[in-house]
Design brief:
349 residues; alpha+beta; Multidrug efflux transporter AcrB transmembrane fold; Alpha-Beta Plaits; 2 domains; two-stranded parallel sheet; 7% strand; disordered C terminus
Length: 349
Amino acid sequence: MSGIARRLYRGEIDVDFVGRRKLWYGLSALLLLVSLAGLLLHGLNLGVEFRGGSVFSFKAPAATEIQDVRTTFGDAGAHQVIVQTTNNGWRVTTESLSPEGVTNVQKAVAKKFDLPQNQVTLQVIGASWGGQVADKAITGLIVFMLAIILYLTLAFEWKMALSAVVALLHDLVITAGVYAWSGFEVTPATLLGFLTILGYSLYDAVVVFDMIKEVTAKLGTTSKMTYTQAANNALNHTLIRSLNTTLVAILPVAAILFIGTTLFGAGTLKDLSLALFVGMIVGTYSSLCVATPMLVTLKEREPRYQAIARRLSAQSGGGKGGGAKSLRQPVTAGASNGSVSETEKRKKK
């Protein structure tokens, strides 16, 4: 395993990402179907900020268990009880309660855990505030998508912009599906996480597209590579960079998600960290296995690259290996336009 890792780091492993596009498309379709099924069957577990409710905070003896707190609130007439531990004690969220219902809960909690009633604090949150946050997040998402389409169209071309946007939507749907199936609460911090993962996904896609643009710029009538082969070559040369970036970014996020929430009760950070953790992984996958294959699918339809593919296929004897084979070459101008080095000429003589 360590030998494979070293070869991968040195760039000695050539992975045929583009050639396996049907596999990636099938895997992505499966992930999207599972995610959509979770959203339709379970829906998102919206936090109190979006649906409104009453939030009670109090301190209790160290031996208190979650079930004791939940039972106390249930017996007092509260429903939809969500119990959380915090550094300062307990945080319990219920549906919106009437003034009489709030008083009953405060009395029951104070009696059960031997507390003064005024130490059971209440915070009432209306659903309108969460709706405003959601509206602003959707507006930010639309503005972000339009800006990305404009930038990529000007810096590269519209086909790259379309591929990148499809990959971004792919990442958002799958991340939302993970929230639906896991039952994690969706809070304003979650929305921030959703907007943040777009940047990570886009970063990888732009790095790959920039390399593809450089490699394919000099493809011409004498080229020894098709657009598919050149794109896959560029993808392999950026592979280790993408993996390193994701690994470095995901380690602190994983620490918050798995260690912080377990040992220290990270609370709101849990909602943010899950979105980041899933989004970074899916974003790296989509930039390698969704955005680039989709770009190649669109570019292969251009007459210029179809002519190159037909010529190379004819030279290889009707496409038996020459047209589909990936060529592992240094990413230079000479490699991309099929030039022959002086050393090779002397060997032929």
